[in-house]
Structure formats: structure tokens, C-alpha cells
Amino acid sequence: METVIQKMQQFLKDEKELLADLALDVANAENDYEYAKSKALYSVQMARVSGIKDTLAMLEESHQ
After folding, report:
1. 61, pLDDT greater than 80
2. pTM (predicted TM-score)
3. Helix (H, G, I), strand (E, B), or coil: what is residue 30?
């Protein structure tokens, strides 16, 4: 079970890095289209990160 938790923690770290990159894309958007597209991708990634956090919390709770 410890290996699964470690893999999930690494997965979360990787997904947070992608989230940070997408935040930069939002900040650097040069027009309304790029902004809207970047914001939508950021929102999807934020939901993904939240889901991974919730899953990891449940795994850690059940492991204790």
C-alpha cells in the first residue's frame, strides 16, 4: 500500500507542476481567445488536482 501512496504523491506533484504551467499560460495570454482557452484548461487541471488530492487523502486515511 505504501508504494501506491508514494506513486500517487508523485503523480500529484507532477500534476501540480502542470497546473503551475497552465497558470503561466493564463497570465501570459495575448488575446481573449488565448485567455479563455488557457483559463478553461487551467480549470480542468485544477479539478484534476483536487480529485487526486481527495483520492490520496482517502488512501492515506485507510492505510493508518
Report:
1. yes
2. 0.88
3. coil
